[in-house]
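Work Package 4 report. The design task specified in the project plan requires that, given a folded chain encoded as structure tokens, an amino acid be chosen for each position. We show below one input record used in the internal validation round.
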């Protein structure tokens, strides 16, 4: 989860989020190089003693500052497209879960091993434990195994919501009457926090998402013992 003075991405907990961070850093480096170049050129052109009041056109510089940005854009577009298709890929998921957005909570269904379904409500601030995160904890967490391809089907029962877990690089709209799917792979055991990311009404800010990732054997145990 994000903590105070966290101005960058959260650390990644999935291979796709690693790729998103790599792409972000790559693009940011290009952005910094352009800013420095343009900044230097502007300052050195403003603050010099030369004046040319009769300049009408200059074909060569026009050519250069058309072609150079075009090449720069290719270096952003190609990795961007690679990432886009990588994020869209569904890699033989072992487990499929379903998430339904409601005003204002999420509900989850596991139906490929046993029919499990539950609602996941935010824990109000006055009921929190000392080690809990305010406005982020839920009463029923999504339990999932680590190092497993997981598919999540996302829909809504009322208005548009958005199911998001930043450290896993997942964000998918929950539309009423439509089933969206995405997938992710959790690298390590832990708790991953997210929040609804589509303004969905008065309590939009109070329908967080929590994933608890555990070892596969513990996950099977959880499924077996669920009643
Ligand atoms: Cu919302």
């Amino acid at each position: 989860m994000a903590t105070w003075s966290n101005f960058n991405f959260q650390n990644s907990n999935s291979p796709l989020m690693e790729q998103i961070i790599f792409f972000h850093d790559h693009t940011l480096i290009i952005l910094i190089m352009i800013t420095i170049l343009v900044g230097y050129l502007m300052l050195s052109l403003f603050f010099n003693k030369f004046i040319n009041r009769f300049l009408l056109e200059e074909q060569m510089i026009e050519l250069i500052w058309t072609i150079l940005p075009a090449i720069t854009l290719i270096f952003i577009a190609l990795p961007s497209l690679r990432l886009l298709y990588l994020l869209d890929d569904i890699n033989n998921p072992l487990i499929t879960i379903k998430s339904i957005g409601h005003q204002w909570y999420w509900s989850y269904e596991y139906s490929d091993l046993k029919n499990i379904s539950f609602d996941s409500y935010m824990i109000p601030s006055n009921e929190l434990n000392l080690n809990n995160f305010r406005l982020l904890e839920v009463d029923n967490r999504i339990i999932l195994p680590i190092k497993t391809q997981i598919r999540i089907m996302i829909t809504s029962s009322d208005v548009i919501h958005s199911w998001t877990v930043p450290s896993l690089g997942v964000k998918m709209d929950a539309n009423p009457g439509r089933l969206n799917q995405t997938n992710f792979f959790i690298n390590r055991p832990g708790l991953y926090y997210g929040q609804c990311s589509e303004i969905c009404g008065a309590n939009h800010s109070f329908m967080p998402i929590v994933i608890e990732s555990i070892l596969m054997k513990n996950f099977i145990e959880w499924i077996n013992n669920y009643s």
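Residues 15-46 form the longest helix (32 residues). Validation will be extended to a larger panel in the next phase.
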